[in-house]
Write a structure and sequence with these properties.
The protein has 229 residues and is mostly helical. The chain is 81% helix and 0% strand. The protein has helices spanning 3-25, 27-37, 42-46, 50-58, 60-69, 72-91, 96-110, 113-124, 128-157, 159-182, 202-228. The radius of gyration is 19 Å and the shape is globular.
Length: 229
């Protein structure tokens, strides 16, 4: 793999991580303007994010499977384009049904990043620890910027702009990534099909899975509860 491809992989993966978290968080700010614009109670509007939030977790497994069977950079491209189209649908919404449709699209395509983007970073990085650290910073940056970006755009041109401006940028990034793939400037490192030596019992693996699952569930509940509040 060329040095250019390695750098592009890290660049697009970092932008993708920030974009995914921005799209997953900015509705919590936008909903405050929707409450006034649509004259609907907050609890009714925030409930629209319940199914999309579930989709982010539920669709991660098929997204990872598709990446293994097809192409990780291609899946990240689909994420960029899908988030963009879904966000534009939200910006055009005049009722809760259309908004739910767009938000579900955001949840569906946001589910792609973690099971696809993180392994992609690991496969293509020269220094994996450093690459994962940089990538993690961008994920946190997406969460942090969501309220600032959404708030500024709402102040500038209404709640619709908070959807369509990031969505347009996401589509543009997706098209740029498609071009990089088509011109072979961005290639994926092949999967290592060798299986690790089985040094652990089934019980050991289940214990590790249970600990990680409980930890991730707890952190997820706390994070989303604070974010929604």
């Amino acid at each position: 793999m060329s040095q250019l491809s390695s750098r592009l992989s890290l660049t697009f993966s970092c932008i993708g991580h920030a974009t995914m978290h921005l799209f997953a968080a900015f509705y919590f700010i936008i909903v405050l303007s929707l409450e006034k614009a649509w004259q609907l109670p907050y609890h009714e509007l925030i409930e629209l994010w319940t199914l999309p939030a579930i989709l982010i977790g539920l669709c991660a497994l098929p997204a990872g499977w598709l990446s293994d069977k097809w192409h990780a950079p291609g899946m990240i491209t689909v994420m960029f384009l899908g988030l963009g189209v879904s966000g534009i649908i939200c910006s055009l919404a005049q009722d809760t049904e259309t908004m739910l449709l767009g938000l579900c699209g955001i949840g569906l395509f946001a589910a792609i990043y973690h099971p696809v983007g993180i392994p992609w970073v690991i496969r293509n990085a020269e220094k994996q620890g450093k690459a994962l650290g940089i990538n993690g910073i961008f994920g946190s940056l997406g969460v942090a910027l969501a309220s600032i970006v959404a708030g500024a755009l709402i102040e500038f041109n209404g709640w619709q702009a908070a959807f369509w401006v990031p969505s347009t940028l996401s589509i543009a990034i997706g098209l740029a990534m498609s071009y990089a793939i088509a011109t072979k400037k961005l290639v994926d490192h092949p999967h290592d099909d060798t299986k690790p030596q089985e040094n652990h019992t089934a019980r050991n693996r289940m214990q590790a899975f249970a600990i990680l699952a409980f930890t991730m569930l707890s952190v997820g509940i706390i994070f989303n509860a604070i974010q929604t509040a």
